[in-house]
Amino acid sequence: MSQTAANTAAAPKPRRAVDTLEWVMHTIVLVLSVLLIVFISYDTFRNHNFLTNHAYMTFQFWVCVVFVLDFFIELIFAPDKWSYVRRRFVFLIISIPYLNLVNYLDITLSPEALYFVRFIPLVRGALALSIVFGYFSSNAVTSFFMSYIVIIIMLVYFCSLIFYQCEQAVNPQVDTYWTALWWAAMNMSTVGCYINAMTVEGRVIAVVLPIAGMIIFPLFTVYLTDYVKRHSRPGIKE
Protein backbone atom coordinates (compact mmCIF):
# COMPACT_ATOMS: atom_id res chain seq x y z
CA MET A 1 0.00 0.00 0.00
CA SER A 2 1.35 3.43 -0.96
CA GLN A 3 1.89 6.26 1.54
CA THR A 4 -1.03 8.24 0.08
CA ALA A 5 -3.39 5.27 0.39
CA ALA A 6 -2.26 4.68 3.97
CA ASN A 7 -2.92 8.31 4.88
CA THR A 8 -6.36 8.12 3.28
CA ALA A 9 -7.24 4.97 5.20
CA ALA A 10 -6.07 6.47 8.48
CA ALA A 11 -7.82 9.82 8.01
CA PRO A 12 -11.32 8.81 9.22
CA LYS A 13 -10.03 7.55 12.58
CA PRO A 14 -9.35 10.98 14.16
CA ARG A 15 -12.75 12.17 12.94
CA ARG A 16 -14.46 9.20 14.54
CA ALA A 17 -12.59 9.88 17.78
CA VAL A 18 -13.76 13.51 17.71
CA ASP A 19 -17.35 12.43 17.03
CA THR A 20 -17.16 10.03 19.98
CA LEU A 21 -15.79 12.78 22.23
CA GLU A 22 -18.57 15.15 21.16
CA TRP A 23 -21.16 12.44 21.84
CA VAL A 24 -19.72 11.87 25.32
CA MET A 25 -19.74 15.61 26.08
CA HIS A 26 -23.32 16.00 24.85
CA THR A 27 -24.37 13.05 27.01
CA ILE A 28 -22.67 14.54 30.08
CA VAL A 29 -24.39 17.88 29.42
CA LEU A 30 -27.68 16.02 29.04
CA VAL A 31 -27.33 14.16 32.36
CA LEU A 32 -26.33 17.31 34.23
CA SER A 33 -29.26 19.19 32.69
CA VAL A 34 -31.70 16.53 33.84
CA LEU A 35 -30.30 16.77 37.36
CA LEU A 36 -30.70 20.57 37.23
CA ILE A 37 -34.33 20.12 36.20
CA VAL A 38 -34.86 17.77 39.16
CA PHE A 39 -33.28 20.32 41.53
CA ILE A 40 -35.38 23.20 40.21
CA SER A 41 -38.58 21.16 40.23
CA TYR A 42 -37.99 20.00 43.79
CA ASP A 43 -37.30 23.53 45.05
CA THR A 44 -40.36 24.87 43.20
CA PHE A 45 -42.76 22.27 44.59
CA ARG A 46 -41.30 22.58 48.10
CA ASN A 47 -41.09 26.38 47.88
CA HIS A 48 -37.44 26.36 48.98
CA ASN A 49 -35.12 29.37 48.79
CA PHE A 50 -32.51 28.13 46.33
CA LEU A 51 -30.06 30.98 47.07
CA THR A 52 -29.60 29.60 50.56
CA ASN A 53 -29.28 26.05 49.27
CA HIS A 54 -25.50 25.62 49.21
CA ALA A 55 -25.71 22.21 47.52
CA TYR A 56 -27.79 23.58 44.65
CA MET A 57 -25.67 26.68 44.12
CA THR A 58 -22.48 24.61 44.09
CA PHE A 59 -23.99 22.06 41.74
CA GLN A 60 -25.23 24.68 39.29
CA PHE A 61 -21.81 26.38 39.30
CA TRP A 62 -19.99 23.19 38.32
CA VAL A 63 -22.65 22.32 35.77
CA CYS A 64 -22.05 25.69 34.10
CA VAL A 65 -18.29 25.06 34.22
CA VAL A 66 -18.84 21.77 32.34
CA PHE A 67 -21.03 23.59 29.80
CA VAL A 68 -18.27 26.15 29.18
CA LEU A 69 -15.64 23.39 28.87
CA ASP A 70 -17.88 21.61 26.37
CA PHE A 71 -17.93 24.75 24.22
CA PHE A 72 -14.14 25.11 24.18
CA ILE A 73 -13.49 21.38 23.67
CA GLU A 74 -15.72 21.40 20.59
CA LEU A 75 -14.05 24.63 19.46
CA ILE A 76 -10.61 22.98 19.59
CA PHE A 77 -11.69 20.17 17.26
CA ALA A 78 -13.90 22.29 14.98
CA PRO A 79 -12.57 22.35 11.38
CA ASP A 80 -13.63 25.98 10.95
CA LYS A 81 -13.22 27.66 14.32
CA TRP A 82 -14.60 31.07 13.35
CA SER A 83 -17.69 29.45 11.87
CA TYR A 84 -18.14 27.41 15.05
CA VAL A 85 -17.87 30.53 17.24
CA ARG A 86 -20.44 32.37 15.10
CA ARG A 87 -22.89 29.47 15.23
CA ARG A 88 -22.38 28.45 18.88
CA PHE A 89 -21.45 31.69 20.65
CA VAL A 90 -24.90 31.83 22.20
CA PHE A 91 -24.10 28.43 23.79
CA LEU A 92 -21.22 30.05 25.64
CA ILE A 93 -23.33 33.03 26.75
CA ILE A 94 -26.05 30.86 28.28
CA SER A 95 -23.47 28.62 29.98
CA ILE A 96 -22.18 31.38 32.28
CA PRO A 97 -23.19 30.78 35.94
CA TYR A 98 -25.20 34.00 36.25
CA LEU A 99 -26.99 32.91 39.41
CA ASN A 100 -23.70 32.34 41.20
CA LEU A 101 -22.43 35.72 40.00
CA VAL A 102 -25.59 37.43 41.26
CA ASN A 103 -25.16 35.75 44.64
CA TYR A 104 -21.40 36.43 44.85
CA LEU A 105 -21.69 40.10 43.84
CA ASP A 106 -24.74 40.55 46.09
CA ILE A 107 -26.83 41.93 43.23
CA THR A 108 -30.43 42.63 44.22
CA LEU A 109 -33.05 41.13 41.92
CA SER A 110 -36.72 40.41 42.43
CA PRO A 111 -37.66 36.80 43.31
CA GLU A 112 -39.29 36.44 39.90
CA ALA A 113 -36.17 37.67 38.08
CA LEU A 114 -33.98 35.30 40.10
CA TYR A 115 -36.24 32.41 39.22
CA PHE A 116 -35.89 33.27 35.52
CA VAL A 117 -32.09 33.38 35.90
CA ARG A 118 -32.16 29.81 37.22
CA PHE A 119 -33.44 28.61 33.86
CA ILE A 120 -30.63 30.08 31.75
CA PRO A 121 -28.36 26.99 32.07
CA LEU A 122 -31.35 24.80 31.23
CA VAL A 123 -31.62 26.45 27.83
CA ARG A 124 -28.17 25.03 27.13
CA GLY A 125 -29.35 21.69 28.47
CA ALA A 126 -32.44 21.69 26.25
CA LEU A 127 -30.25 22.31 23.20
CA ALA A 128 -28.01 19.41 24.20
CA LEU A 129 -31.08 17.22 24.70
CA SER A 130 -32.38 18.02 21.22
CA ILE A 131 -28.94 17.28 19.72
CA VAL A 132 -28.62 13.91 21.48
CA PHE A 133 -32.12 12.81 20.45
CA GLY A 134 -31.42 14.02 16.93
CA TYR A 135 -28.56 11.49 16.72
CA PHE A 136 -31.02 8.63 17.06
CA SER A 137 -32.01 8.86 13.40
CA SER A 138 -29.85 8.90 10.30
CA ASN A 139 -32.59 10.69 8.38
CA ALA A 140 -32.17 14.47 8.52
CA VAL A 141 -35.89 15.26 8.56
CA THR A 142 -36.64 12.71 11.31
CA SER A 143 -33.70 13.99 13.33
CA PHE A 144 -34.98 17.54 12.93
CA PHE A 145 -38.48 16.44 13.97
CA MET A 146 -37.26 14.65 17.10
CA SER A 147 -35.22 17.69 18.11
CA TYR A 148 -38.28 19.90 17.92
CA ILE A 149 -40.38 17.41 19.90
CA VAL A 150 -37.81 17.67 22.70
CA ILE A 151 -37.83 21.48 22.49
CA ILE A 152 -41.65 21.55 22.74
CA ILE A 153 -41.68 19.29 25.81
CA MET A 154 -38.94 21.29 27.53
CA LEU A 155 -40.58 24.62 26.71
CA VAL A 156 -43.96 23.53 28.07
CA TYR A 157 -42.40 22.14 31.24
CA PHE A 158 -40.16 25.14 31.94
CA CYS A 159 -42.97 27.61 31.28
CA SER A 160 -45.36 25.64 33.49
CA LEU A 161 -42.85 25.78 36.36
CA ILE A 162 -42.34 29.52 35.93
CA PHE A 163 -46.08 30.12 35.65
CA TYR A 164 -46.75 28.07 38.77
CA GLN A 165 -44.03 29.85 40.72
CA CYS A 166 -45.31 33.32 39.75
CA GLU A 167 -49.06 32.71 39.91
CA GLN A 168 -49.71 30.29 42.76
CA ALA A 169 -49.66 32.97 45.48
CA VAL A 170 -51.88 35.51 43.68
CA ASN A 171 -54.05 33.55 41.27
CA PRO A 172 -56.84 31.44 42.85
CA GLN A 173 -57.24 29.56 39.55
CA VAL A 174 -53.73 28.11 39.87
CA ASP A 175 -54.26 25.80 42.83
CA THR A 176 -51.82 23.00 41.85
CA TYR A 177 -48.86 22.53 39.53
CA TRP A 178 -50.97 20.28 37.28
CA THR A 179 -53.23 23.24 36.60
CA ALA A 180 -50.18 25.25 35.50
CA LEU A 181 -49.02 22.38 33.29
CA TRP A 182 -52.46 22.15 31.68
CA TRP A 183 -52.43 25.92 31.12
CA ALA A 184 -48.99 25.79 29.46
CA ALA A 185 -49.93 22.87 27.20
CA MET A 186 -53.17 24.50 26.07
CA ASN A 187 -51.44 27.80 25.30
CA MET A 188 -48.62 26.03 23.47
CA SER A 189 -51.18 24.29 21.27
CA THR A 190 -52.75 27.74 20.59
CA VAL A 191 -56.11 26.39 21.82
CA GLY A 192 -56.05 28.63 24.87
CA CYS A 193 -57.17 28.04 28.44
CA TYR A 194 -59.82 29.41 30.79
CA ILE A 195 -57.11 30.46 33.29
CA ASN A 196 -56.03 34.08 33.03
CA ALA A 197 -52.55 35.17 34.09
CA MET A 198 -52.50 37.83 36.82
CA THR A 199 -48.77 38.60 37.01
CA VAL A 200 -46.58 40.33 34.43
CA GLU A 201 -44.41 37.23 34.11
CA GLY A 202 -47.43 35.02 33.55
CA ARG A 203 -48.78 37.35 30.85
CA VAL A 204 -45.42 37.34 29.09
CA ILE A 205 -45.41 33.54 29.06
CA ALA A 206 -49.01 33.59 27.82
CA VAL A 207 -47.76 35.47 24.76
CA VAL A 208 -44.57 33.47 24.23
CA LEU A 209 -46.19 30.02 24.29
CA PRO A 210 -48.74 30.54 21.48
CA ILE A 211 -46.12 32.24 19.31
CA ALA A 212 -43.77 29.29 19.83
CA GLY A 213 -46.63 26.91 19.03
CA MET A 214 -47.45 28.72 15.77
CA ILE A 215 -43.79 28.48 14.75
CA ILE A 216 -43.13 24.88 15.77
CA PHE A 217 -46.34 22.97 15.00
CA PRO A 218 -46.25 23.60 11.21
CA LEU A 219 -43.00 21.62 11.24
CA PHE A 220 -45.10 18.54 12.00
CA THR A 221 -46.83 19.02 8.66
CA VAL A 222 -43.45 19.17 6.93
CA TYR A 223 -42.34 15.97 8.65
CA LEU A 224 -45.54 14.08 7.87
CA THR A 225 -45.39 15.19 4.23
CA ASP A 226 -41.80 13.99 3.95
CA TYR A 227 -42.68 10.72 5.72
CA VAL A 228 -45.55 9.97 3.33
CA LYS A 229 -43.43 10.79 0.28
CA ARG A 230 -40.57 8.54 1.40
CA HIS A 231 -42.80 5.59 2.29
CA SER A 232 -44.98 5.85 -0.80
CA ARG A 233 -41.96 5.16 -3.02
CA PRO A 234 -40.91 1.52 -3.30
CA GLY A 235 -37.43 0.74 -2.07
CA ILE A 236 -37.09 3.89 0.06
CA LYS A 237 -36.79 3.24 3.77
CA GLU A 238 -36.30 5.33 6.91
Describe, in short, the structure shown.
The protein is mainly alpha-helical and 238 residues long. The chain has 2 domains: 1-135; 137-238, Helix Hairpins, CATH 1.10.287.
Estimate the global geometry from the Cα principal axes.
flat
The count of helical stretches stands at 11
What portion of residues belong to β-strands? under 5%
Which blocks of ≥5 consecutive residues have pLDDT under 50? 1-11
Mean pLDDT value: 77
Instruction: Give me the secondary-structure category.
Output: mainly alpha
Q: How many distinct beta strands? A: 0
Number of domains: 2
* Major beta sheet summary: none
Whole-Å distance between the termini? 37 Å
Order of helices and strands: HHHHHHHHHHH
Helix content: over 70%
Radius of gyration: 21 Å
